[in-house]
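Sharing in case it's useful to others searching the archive later.

Someone asked me privately for the predicted structure of Major facilitator superfamily (MFS) profile domain-containing protein, so I'm posting the question and my answer publicly. Question first, with the sequence:
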Amino acid sequence: MAPHRLRGTLNIGLQLMITVGIFSANLVNYGAARIRGGWGWRLSLGLAAVPAGIITTGSLFLPDTPSSLISRGHHEQARRVLRRIRGTDDIEEEYGDLVAASEASGAVRRPWLDILRRRYRPQLAMAVLVPFFQQLTGINAIMFYAPVLFKTIGLGGDASLMSAVITGLVNIAATFVSIATVDRLGRRKLFFQGGCQMLLCQIVIGTLIGLEFGASWDGAIPKASAAAVVALICVYVAGFAWSWGPLGILVPSEIFPLEIRPAGQGVSVAVNMLGTFAVAQAFLPMLCRMRFGLFYFFGGWVLAMTLFVAAFLPETKGVPIEKMGVVWRTHWFWKRFVADEDGRAGHRDVEMDYRKADGIAVR
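And my answer, the predicted structure tokens:
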């Protein structure tokens, strides 16, 4: 539903609300930990019904998208929704693009099989690898187990919970940076900068903890070193919050053509949830066995995914979703998979279409 020039900014609003939810959960846990009698954890768990109720109520007021209405034959209603969300009556050109895309989508009867076709291999690769790499940044380990981690490095129980609250605030603030820059700087620059920032933090944190604890975890880390670790974790969280956090959701949501978008989104969400589950289950055993080496483990993955983005992810900012195919046809690697029907790349027509889409030249 978002206009293509603001798609990144509006989409990251989803990530902003996720960070607000994480921060709210940290506050609830911090307060519930102080309740005596053994029912504090029940209160923190039960309060999850509040956002569930808000989501349910909000769904009653959420309109269908123009693409969905067109695909089901409700053309006049689609026009009304499009006029409403664009704030103008001049919607015929965009409406025509949506109708054409919907007709192409309607010709596909087996999206879960068609997504495996060679021409969709670039999008499928991104739908799997971007959420896969996102989970291996180590962010879930940090956010899930921040109190455990901070307590392990020598902070008290209350101090560790407060440190988790601090990282939640950093997460929210840094997400605003992404909102302000994603449609100006583009996806690739934020991915690359955030990856480099997280990599550096992982290496320094692992080295600092290793020098203080060694391999045995014996003793307590000095307060100055503990404060340095908390500060570096905040820098790490900030790097994630304006790069791989929101963009891990944004990029898979905007790269698929209409005909396979539901299947593609399903694959992306499934990989994300599976990765979340795996990291949540594996983190504590890995922390016990790898100790400070755990940060090097995640740092190695951050290096791999940053190089992957630099080499294989095309820039998608400002490109209408209906015309997203041009970014794959002009990419140095993926163009071999998405040649035109006659087997030629068709670069000249694609280049003109790309310039028309966003007023930018293909490099």
